[in-house]
Every structure is written in structure tokens, then in C-alpha cells.
Amino acid sequence: MNYLQRTTGTLFAAFLASSASANTLYSDLPEQINPSAKYVFYSHGYIVEGDNETPIHKRWGKYDFPAIKQALSDEAYTLIAEHRPKGIAPETYTKTLASKVRKLLDAGVSAKHITLVGFSRGGALTIMASNTLKNDAINFVILAGCAGLIKKKPNIQLYGKVLSVYETSDQVGSCDFVKARSTNIQSFEEFSISTGKEHGAFYLPRDEWLAPVKSWILNH
């Protein structure tokens, strides 16, 4: 085999690999739902709502939504990461998110094969969706999402299996207060990271939070 053939073969293999990876990442539910597959939803922070996928915060820098989507995606599951429109009411999007989860359940996907991940406003929406669905088998990952919106809604509870992650330099801290009022929660794990980046720790796909979150998803 000559150099050109080897190079062409390598490029073709890389193309196939990238295509396979691309087929695990969607902005909405795929048309064809595989009942035996795992599905993960990622809900971004408030700053990304609108048309810009890489907005700049004056204190915390760039929120790289595309990079987070790519880093969070995995061949072991289908990742759905929707770009929410600007100004959408939390209650409205909660209904949308919950309805998509119900479509998966109606299509035969096992509840234990569904995970909802959310950061900041997206974390609050994930908690609200958990309260709406009231399903003990679904998995939820909350990234710095237990803040004002959830504190103002004392009746909101978490269900299922929950992982909470927060940054020690951030004003948004533990989800213990939500856990305490969630009588139907099945399991709760929480850990903190210490990057010194405050809320911006989750603006980029940093290994400190991304690696353990992906590991948790793959094992649930």
C-alpha cells in the first residue's frame, strides 16, 4: 500500500468516526427513536438563550456551548442539546422538556436510560422537569443550578437518581436544601470542584466537572 492509499484510508476512517460521533448529537429529538438506546439532555445556562452560541460574560468570559456539546457527547448515548430562544419562560420550557422525555418513554425507552443535565438556569429547568415528570427511575445532573429560581419555588422537588456539582468559589452552592425537601428522591450524590472560576467554571468543558459527570452518566 503506497502513501496516498494509506493517507486516504486514514482520512476515510477518521471521517467515519466523526460521522458516527455526529450521529449521537442532536439539537432536538431524533426522528427515529431507538427503544434500547440511552438518551441524555443538556440544558445550557441563561446567558446562551437567544441566537449566540458563544456569548461573552464580562466577568466569566466565553460560554462555549458548541464545545460543551461536543465534549459531553459520547457514542454510548444520544445527546440532545437544544438552543433555547431568548426570554422563554421557565415554566414554558419545563413543559417542553418534560414532553420530550415523555415521548421517549412512550416510544419504549427505559426511564433508567434517560438522563437530564442542566447548568445554572438549565439546572433549574432540569429540577423543574424532574418535579413535573415525578419519575423515580430517571437520572438528573444539576450543575450549579440550585439558586434563586428554585429557592423561590419551595414546592419543587427532585425525583429519581441525582448528581449535583457546584464550584466552591461560586455563589451558587450545594443542592442540599432541595434534597432535604425531596421525599421521593432515590439517590443523591454531590461533589464540589475548586477551579477559582466562580460560575464560569461551567462555561467551558473543563475536565474537573466534565469527566466525573460523563462517568456518572455512563454508569447510570
From TrEMBL:
A molecular-function term among this protein's GO annotations: hydrolase activity
Segment forming the signal sequence: 1-22
Keywords, in A-Z order: Hydrolase, Signal
Coiled coil (UniProt feature): none
Phospholipase/carboxylesterase/thioesterase domain residues: 94-172
Protein name: Alpha/beta hydrolase
Organism: Pseudoalteromonas piscicida
